[in-house]
Amino acid sequence: MSLLPELRYPTVTEVVTSARALAAHRPALCTLREVGRSRAGRPLLLLSVGHAERAVLVVAGAHSNEPTGGATLLSVAERVVREGELRADTSWHFLLCADPDGASLHVTPAPRNLFEYHRGFFRPAGHEQPEWSPAVLPPDRLPPETRALTGVIDELRPYLQVTLHGTELGGSWVQLTKDIPGLAEPFAKSAAEHNIPVETGASDAAGWPASGPGVHVMPAPGAGAAYPSMPDDARNSTWYHAHRYGGLTAIVEVPMWASDLVDDPVPHPDPAVALRRLARRLLLDTHEVERVLTDALPRLPGVGGPLLRAARWGLELVPGLAADWMHMVPVDNTRAYVGSVDAFARRLPLRAAAMLLRVLTEHDDRAAPRLEQLVATWSEAFAERFRARWVPLEHQVEHQARTVVEAARHARDRST
Residue 61: which of 70, 52, 53 has the closest Cα? Predict the structure, then answer.
């Protein structure tokens, strides 16, 4: 039986219902248990398949605006139950959603276009994200979701943690905390079979070495950051927690809409000039959102909440990031990298505007129509610039699921 809803991304409730059904169907093989509670009191649930000591941990829902992971997690869980060789000497553990509070606020399960996607957009401020909070908060202030995730890692000591991420528009890529030799080939083959471009110059992995196209290996702790202004560092995130047990983490990214402009390895004629231009546009776009915010705030006394916090956090990142792009030597000179930075520069103000729009709409503020037009215009321009084409949901899920299984196979060979 398929556990995946059709034509849309499953909600957390649907993922939990499917996991319960799977555990009930194979009770000798599967268990479902609570490993913590979110800040709002929602349960954090772990589905385990198999009983071997050697473990793989799969995490979905770390970023609420990246909805493919829940469907992928169910697909992999089904496959592990069905294919005994996958669990012959390995147990599989699935954290159904790392941030159920965030997931409850991102409300676009079946977006038809980027504007509709952004109308229901939510992504928490960095210090509220379970995987990223250790990079910006002291240990005694970590949210319960983070403590639950690291507690699971401490208990299972997985040789591999896979965390399921995504992007609204772009290509697929993998980030590794240690190299997994042999992964690049099946990853590229799967992407090609599903007509998904490989993002070879992902700005998220700027300056990292690559073990193959789109497979990026994080620099060792102590290496300089590509963007010094950014307040977090992946090497301080929960991704590195598995290292204390000899494990590693793979972050598998897959797009909702694909762009064939993100896998162009041809050198850009002048990347430094291009990045300065993108920095200036980023500052101008951000200023437009800040003007709306400044105008509306006096009419919203006492208004707070995660949407407004996240919008303001995103806006606060911009000055430093723009300065990085203006003054630093580009870490990559390819068209793919410049295109990825272009997308990044569009995302930050667009996401802030989208979340602010939800706040203004909820309070029937007079600035909402103006901001809605801005979100619509920027969404359309984003899609047009990158020639966005929808990746069928089943292709998103199958490619991400294949990459998870291949990462587990190759990392197992690496650890033996």
Answer: 70
